[in-house]
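idk why but the lab printer keeps eating my pages so im just putting this in chat instead. protein + iron/sulfur cluster:
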Amino acid sequence: MPEAETRMPDTETQELTQQLKQQALQLGFALVGVTPAVSPSRLSHFHRWLENGYAGQMLYLENRKSAYEHPSSILDGCKSLVMLGVPYLANESQRQSGSEPEGVGKIARYAQCGLDYHDVIRGKLKELRKWLVQNCPGANARGIVDTAPLLEREFAEAAGLGWVGKNTLLLNRTWGSYFFLAALLTNVELHYDLPQQTSHCGTCTACIDQCPTGAIVAPYVLDANRCLSYVTIESPGLPAVDVAAKASGWLFGCDICQEVCPWNRRSQCTTDATWQPDPRSQSFDLMQVLSWRDSQFESNLKGKPMWRAKRRGMLRNAILLAGSQRLESACIVLAEKLRDEESLVRAAAAWALGEINTEYCRTTLVQAQTDELDKDVQEAIAQAVCRTATLRRG
Ligand code: SF4
Ligand code: SF4
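predcted complex ->
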């Protein structure tokens, strides 16, 4: 599309931007701000973060490194980004933090409604795009949520939506940090908002101090390898043993660095019923998850955010959590998992049995040592056997 076609006089630009923002609000985007498409200023920070290995196994980040240099890699001729936020904290009871009883796995708040937010937000973005294309001749636009190579938090800050906190999440004075980020990229020049200039973290370090695994290695720097959100959702493998031992009750995701943030204590709840928690998605009984037949993982989780981890990931999470809680009632079902078809599940079971460390666990592990053919799992079993010899029973 020729550039001239998407340029308008200032007053028209302002009016179009205002109307576009109004549409976004009507569609349920509680936060909306507009910023020009430029190279992100913190690109070098992102590169250093990758070089330090903090991205874990998210190899797609490294593979698409150059695409992060400019939003035009996502939309040809991109001039503006409409940055959008959708809050998901639905009620006060959801705000309460605290530990679930032993044998229960917690689910991150964003997933408690049981809906895949990508699907919900994509629907809204489609409507917003349609409105822009219909109301601005020559307009092209693309909506994104999560999956495109864009430093979303930086552009959201530039659009005035909030500031990036020391926990690396975007914070807003009204909504705290319990909101999803999305963007509509367009070739249209719009009227731009002022960037957020100030951080309101001050001297607070609550998120850093209370992260159970030490994943926030410095203010604004997250080591995904140690982050329970990454470890339980994105990671294809097993975390380091000290991270697994500090699972802190989380079966899928982790909200601790948000729970302890003062900006989330008084943040507003959304009135959008879409995000109301579904009791069947708020927490899970570990013994039930460990006992599901293969087909039950799909029937119980398909369509929910938890399905992202698939059977192998959810089973790994449940096993590691049972191990971290030293759940003796899980020993028999964990012993069965030593014969699972997935090597990841067998290795997780070996670690968990080593943590629980009863006589039964030790005998089972020693037996499995002779049957196991996979080298990595053999190693996990050997380490577990070794630990059972040195750890005192709980
Ligand atoms: S999500 Fe949990 S593990 Fe990750 S940084 Fe926050 S508190 Fe730490
Ligand atoms: S807990 Fe404190 S330091 Fe961390 S993001 Fe919130 S305000 Fe900032």
